[in-house]
Amino acid sequence: MKRVVSFRFMSDETPGPRGAARIHQAAREVLAGRGYSALTMEAVAAAAGVGKSTIYRWWPNKEALLADALAEVFKGEEIPDLGDTRAELRRAVDMTMDNYADAGLAIALPALAADLARHPELLARFREVFLWRKRGNIAAALHRGVDRGDLPATLDTDLIQDLWAGTIMYRRLMTGGPLDDDLAERLVQLAFKV
Amino acid sequence: MKRVVSFRFMSDETPGPRGAARIHQAAREVLAGRGYSALTMEAVAAAAGVGKSTIYRWWPNKEALLADALAEVFKGEEIPDLGDTRAELRRAVDMTMDNYADAGLAIALPALAADLARHPELLARFREVFLWRKRGNIAAALHRGVDRGDLPATLDTDLIQDLWAGTIMYRRLMTGGPLDDDLAERLVQLAFKV
DNA sequence: CGAGAAATGAAACGGGTCGTATCGTTTCGT
DNA sequence: ACGAAACGATACGACCCGTTTCATTTCTCG
Question: CA B76, CA B92: separation in Å to the nearest integer?
Fold first, then answer.
């Protein structure tokens, strides 16, 4: 009896679970509607109209399920070469803002990262999906701007992305300040001045 | 029998609990050593050598206790007039970095903010202690810089503080990037350019 | 189509936490 | 020295986690 619980955290294969889509969506609904600490497996199972055992058959624990559910909606698209550095950077900032648009989901990210602190391999994958993948695309756009001569050659792509994502996350999580056009424009301008 | 459980969340009076200091410290120790999700009331009580009932006698729940325990070490000092704008800003950035120096405590802040989402009055006090109080002091330093002509009159003190704190928190919580001298210097320079 | 395999929903479990209540004891203020 | 307040221990019901069992439904493919 080799019923191995497949550990699919953020993998690409889509093998078993018949109700995977339903379960992912249920997790996001509970999260957005009742918060991270109310996200119980029983609540997710109930919302998905599914037995708890079905969830545990496909995900090893709550963190893995949530990471899968979030990865599905977290945008990490490539930024096309528009020939216009400013427009490309604006698109990058907008993409980041979109990722944090839903407060429930945004709050879950650091909470999840914190819970993952004792699962190093999961934390590494989490960062890959939620940070590095997206950052690579944005870095490409930034480099195009440098090549065009629009951005200073000394630009620190890591710093500018920390500034962008950090400010957006901080407003969402802590101050509750606005995530609007004005902020987006100012963040874009930052890249030209730093 | 009017044994009213005094609700002292972040107040200044220090009335009853004989073991308050011990309990606060125990909460911080458990938090730093085993993480937010391992911060149980029983663990805190055990670490403080105190009965659980004693904690519940003075704090209504875990969030309130933790908010008190964190407020005690969160720095929101005034920044003295040094006559040197750059030096004052550096001090402001260093203060913010200090507040996020301990990873365990830093991670607790957004987690706590998230848990407080359903306690609006607690959330308001949380923000007062952890955000506005400190921000007022930093804003004062920024305004001095503007008055000296060192900083542009158009400076957005809210934005610059979001940039500072956001970047620092983001590195601590998400990327794990360095919080060092180099970052501090770059953040300071930001104020002169934005 | 039909039979075997795989996935499923329901239910129950031990272990653990929360917040409350109730003890008998220790410490404080006066 | 005495009464009131704070204390520690302990037990409670309610809830949740993560696992297991089991009878039923749904797939798969010969």
Answer: 10
**Mean pLDDT, all residues of chain B:** 87
Run of H or E including B34: helix B20-34
Nearest 10 degrees: Cα torsion A54, A4, A70, A26: 0
Whether A115 has a pLDDT exceeding 70, the answer reads yes
Give the burial string for A21-47 (b: 16+ CB within 10 Å, else e): eebbbbbbbbbbebbbeebebebbbeb
Enumerate chain B positions whose Cβ falls within 8 A of a Cβ in A.
35-37, 107, 109-111, 113-115, 117-118, 127, 130-131, 156, 158-159, 162-163, 165-171, 173-177, 183, 186, 190, 193-194
> What confidence score (pLDDT) does residue B17 get?
67
CA A70 – CA A10 distance, rounded (Å) = 10
How far apart, in whole angstroms, are the C-alpha atoms of residue B85 and residue B194? 15
Tokens for B54, please give them.
């004693």
User: What is the C-alpha to C-alpha distance for residues A19 and A50, in angstroms, rounded to an integer?
Assistant: 8
For residue B122, what are its two tokens?
């607690």
Structural domains of chain A, with CATH: 20-70 (1.10.10.60), 74-193 (1.10.357.10)
% chain B with pLDDT above 90: 63
User: Are B159 and A117 in contact (CB < 8 Å)?
Assistant: no
Instruction: Check the CA dihedral B93-B153-B137-B131 and report its sign.
Output: negative
pLDDT at A127: 92
Banded model confidence at residue A16, pLDDT cuts 50, 70, 90: low
Among A126, A129, A170, most B C-beta atoms within 10 A, so best to mutate, is A170
| pLDDT of the residue at A2 | 28
Average pLDDT over residues B169-183: 95
Q: What is the pLDDT of residue A18?
A: 75
